[in-house]
């Protein structure tokens, strides 16, 4: 079974596909999903897809990205890949995203030929299984009147299903500990290879990180006078995974300072294996309310 034609997941899969323009040059479409600018996860997923198009026989193990300018979701994005190095075991790529003649994003990614080595990990947090938790999309829609953009971003039309462990409310947030555990998976099954799952994970990894940094202050992206934007984003991919099966996103925010919120997270498979890690710093600017 694969994503149904016309579904949010099918639309996302099409969005992550890029048009080759020239050697090392690709073009991707944009979508308005409710965020003030192009969703950072879209650019991460497309940039990783572009880098993968220049690599054979190796899988991504890390990426480090900076968001430089607001992306315009009414215009396509051009991705230029620099094949920095192909070594005996590792390949390095640098991807620059361009809109309207200016860089809006750049990313360095490293790929490795699979090999065996030392193995250990921290344990997965003890949390309820996803079946015991409510669908976060339904909770958001039942939360009362919300800006249409917020509903598009996090409501029922999301290509991902979320089951949150800690209580969350966009309309009436309360100060809470800077921690958020949420199960997630795509809303349909996938037929693609490992690369597709990793690009989709890069897309989904931009959800909830900076939101966790706002939890101690009783704020969300829907709060009046709050301006939020990703600044940088890093990921490390440790083990094979599928995003159409439940993954636990265990997020902590150790600090917010200087109008920036920082969060890092571990991503676990349902069987307890730690498959990926993320870190992000984002702008969290609270302006004076009218």
Task: Write a brief structural summary.
This protein has helices at 8-16, 40-52, 136-141, 148-154, 194-204, 209-214, and strands spanning 19-22, 25-28, 59-67, 77-86, 90-99, 102-112, 160-164, 179-186, 226-237, 247-257, 260-269, 274-286.
**Beta-strand content:** 35-45%
Mean pLDDT: 91
Q: Structural class, from helix and strand content?
A: alpha+beta
- Biggest sheet overview: 12 strands, antiparallel
Q: List low-confidence stretches.
A: none
Spatial order of the strands forming the largest sheet? 1-2-4-5-6-3-9-12-11-10-8-7
Instruction: Sketch the topology as an H/E string, one letter per element.
Output: HEEHEEEEHHEEHHEEEE
First-to-last CA distance:
50 Å
Helix content: 10-25%
Query: Per the principal axes of the C-alpha atoms, what is the gross shape?
Result: globular
Rg calc: 18 Å
How many E-type strands? 12
Query: How many individual helices?
Result: 6
């Amino acid at each position: 079974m694969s994503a149904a034609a016309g579904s949010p997941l099918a639309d996302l899969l099409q969005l992550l596909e890029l048009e080759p323009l020239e050697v090392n040059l690709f073009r991707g479409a944009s979508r308005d999903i409710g965020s003030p600018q192009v969703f950072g996860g879209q650019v991460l997923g497309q940039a990783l897809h572009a880098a993968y198009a220049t690599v054979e026989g190796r899988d991504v193990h890390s990426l480090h990205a900076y968001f430089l300018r607001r992306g315009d979701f009414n215009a396509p994005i051009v991705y230029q890949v620099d094949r920095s190095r192909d070594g005996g075991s590792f390949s390095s790529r640098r991807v620059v995203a361009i809109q309207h003649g200016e860089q809006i994003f750049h990313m360095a990614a490293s790929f490795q030929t699979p090999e065996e080595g030392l193995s250990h990990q921290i344990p997965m947090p003890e949390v309820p299984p996803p079946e015991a938790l409510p669908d976060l999309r339904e909770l958001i829609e039942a939360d009362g009147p919300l800006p249409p953009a917020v509903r598009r971003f996090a409501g029922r039309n999301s290509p991902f299903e979320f089951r949150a462990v800690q209580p969350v409310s966009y309309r009436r947030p309360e100060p809470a500990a800077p921690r958020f555990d949420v199960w997630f998976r795509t809303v349909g099954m996938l037929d693609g290879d490992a690369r597709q799952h990793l690009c989709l994970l890069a897309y989904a990894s931009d959800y909830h990180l900076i939101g966790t940094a706002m939890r101690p202050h009783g704020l969300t992206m829907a709060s009046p006078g709050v301006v939020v934007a990703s600044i940088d984003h890093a990921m490390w991919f440790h083990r094979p995974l599928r995003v159409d099966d439940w993954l636990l996103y265990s997020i902590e925010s150790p600090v917010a300072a200087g109008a920036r919120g920082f969060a890092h997270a571990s991503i676990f498979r349902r069987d307890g294996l730690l498959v990926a890690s993320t870190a992000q710093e984002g702008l969290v600017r609270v302006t004076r309310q009218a």
